Every structure is written in structure tokens, then in C-alpha cells.
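Design job #97: recover the sequence.
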């Protein structure tokens, strides 16, 4: 009975707030009817083609391998492309490219810094392309299959009607809008 009592008190408080802000009509005509639809969507989940994602991952790996070879060739040596320290040595020490923003470990190799170096050496374009493909592979092709529920074969998210300050629908765990 305590649950019912608290629920009723909450209803009375929120009902007053809706009326005070002239939101009763919006709540009754839009928000309340949407709740069961979102619940159905959460339960149903989103279908992903796992085979297509696995095939995409393999294709992206081939691209990464090609970019890696080209980057090594352009640098004249092999190095860890994902290591900012090793990247600094190649770009700024070996190739003598213009330095930009300084970090605690040396000059920055972040995307903005590399964008500022576009056109100075072929390696910059290759590194930017490599990073873009690597992000697609790790963020989508490799991680999305891990989000598939083994029982349903689908990805299930939680939709939120009130979480975004803009009033738009949002989702989390996983955030399907970002994906």
C-alpha cells in the first residue's frame, strides 16, 4: 500500500506541475501515448545483420593493412601508428613537419593538428584516412555484434522521453543515435 500511496502523491505533485506549465494537453496527447510504443520498441529491439558487419570488419581490416603499408613506406620505416609518441618522432623529428600544439609528451598528433598539416606531406592524408577507417572498424563493425542479445538476436536499448533538454528522444545502453 505504501507504493500506491507514494505513486498517488507523486501523481498529484506532477499533475499540478503539468497544469501550472500548461503541459497537460501535450502530456496526454503526445508523451503518455508514446510510452507504450517506446516500451514495445525496447522489447522488440533492433535487428542487425551480423554477417554483414563481420564482412565489413574484414574489408575494413584490408583497408587498414593497405594504409599501414603506405604509411610505413611514406615514413621510410615501421612504427606504431596508434602511438602518439612514435607518431611525433616520425612527423616532427624525422620528416621535419611544422609543429603545432604542444602537449606534456611533445607536439600533438590529434586530428585537429594533423588537419593543419594537410598538404605538407603525403603521410598526413594517409594517417587521417587510416584513423577514420580504424574508428569505423572498432566503433561499428567490431563492437556492434557484441551488443546483440544472444536470446533475441537483436540490440535492445532504453529510450528516454525526458533525458534530453531539447525535448528530443534519446537512447542509451547502447546509444543508438550515436551509432
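Job complete. Output follows.
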Amino acid at each position: 500500500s505504501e507504493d500506491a500511496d507514494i505513486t498517488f502523491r507523486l501523481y498529484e505533485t506532477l499533475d499540478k506541475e503539468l497544469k501550472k506549465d500548461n503541459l497537460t494537453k501535450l502530456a496526454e496527447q503526445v508523451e503518455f501515448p508514446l510510452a507504450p510504443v517506446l516500451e514495445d520498441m525496447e522489447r522488440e529491439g533492433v535487428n542487425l545483420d551480423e554477417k554483414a558487419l563481420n564482412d565489413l570488419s574484414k574489408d575494413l581490416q584490408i583497408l587498414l593493412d593497405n594504409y599501414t603499408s603506405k604509411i610505413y613506406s611514406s615514413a621510410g620505416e615501421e612504427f606504431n601508428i596508434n602511438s602518439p609518441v612514435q607518431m611525433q618522432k616520425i612527423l616532427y623529428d624525422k620528416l621535419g613537419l611544422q609543429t603545432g600544439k604542444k602537449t606534456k609528451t611533445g607536439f600533438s598528433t590529434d586530428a585537429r593538428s594533423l588537419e593543419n598539416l594537410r598538404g605538407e606531406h603525403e603521410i598526413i592524408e594517409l594517417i587521417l584516412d587510416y584513423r577514420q577507417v580504424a574508428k569505423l572498424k572498432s566503433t561499428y563493425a567490431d563492437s556492434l555484434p557484441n551488443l546483440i542479445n544472444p536470446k533475441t538476436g537483436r540490440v535492445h536499448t532504453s529510450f528516454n522521453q525526458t533525458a534530453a533538454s531539447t525535448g528530443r528522444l534519446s537512447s542509451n545502453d547502447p546509444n543508438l543515435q550515436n551509432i
